[in-house]
Amino acid sequence: MCSAPKVDTTPAPTVRRIAAPENDAVQRESELESSIRRRRSGVAADILTTPLGIVT
After folding, report:
1. Sign of dihedral through CA atoms 48, 54, 37, 31?
2. Distance of alpha carbon 19 from alpha carbon 39, whole angstroms
3. Separation in Å, CA 37 to CA 19, 26, 40, 42, 54
């Protein structure tokens, strides 16, 4: 005879909820990231467009 598979009847672990950051904090982080991105792109454009290449 074939026996039925055993089913675990223990309750599933509860999922912890993490609070979302405040909107002000998210806005500041977004502005910081975009300013860093603009600075990096500006520096890369300066290096790539100067006749001498990388100048220190």
Report:
1. negative
2. 32
3. 27, 16, 5, 9, 19
